[in-house]
Design brief:
Layout lengths: L1 H28 L3 H4 L1 H26 L5 H29 L33 H4 L3
Length: about 140
């Protein structure tokens, strides 16, 4: 049983370390802010979740005790990572819209433009005399 616990802990630690490395590499290497958000919010979160799961397996398998600390850390991490990424994205889009910053060319290319008159989910300010532009008046 002890050897099975060691194998499980080793596999989870290697998986977690791989995800953390990929997420950190994406944070450093991707050119635009919106692309850089995916590294820490997706891969690194999964990596830390795997490392925390390895800790749970180790303490239960070796010492025979259950700890809730890792589960609470995971819960906090999985709740706060998407919220913080959403806030960073909103600020970034606002700064792009008011031309406070200039973003380098993205790997994915320019953002798609809506077809027709719609201005839903675009990087542009609402057009004049549309429902979106008169809603806050």
């Amino acid at each position: 049983m002890s050897q099975l616990v060691d194998i499980a802990v080793t596999a989870l630690v290697l998986l977690g370390a791989t995800f953390v490395l990929i997420g950190s590499w994406g944070l450093v290497r991707l050119p635009s802010t919106m692309e850089r958000l995916h590294g820490p919010t997706k891969a690194t979160t999964l990596g830390l979740g795997s490392l925390l799961l390895a800790s749970v397996v180790y303490f239960h398998g070796r010492l025979g005790i259950w700890t809730a600390h890792e589960l609470l850390i995971s819960l906090f991490l999985f709740i706060t990572a998407p919220i913080s990424a959403n806030m960073i994205a909103k600020v970034h889009l606002h700064r792009l819209r008011i031309a406070e910053i200039v973003e380098p060319d993205s790997i994915a290319g320019p953002p798609p433009r809506p077809e027709g008159d719609g201005d839903w989910a675009t990087f542009e300010a609402p057009k004049r005399n549309t429902p979106a532009s008169t809603a806050n008046s």
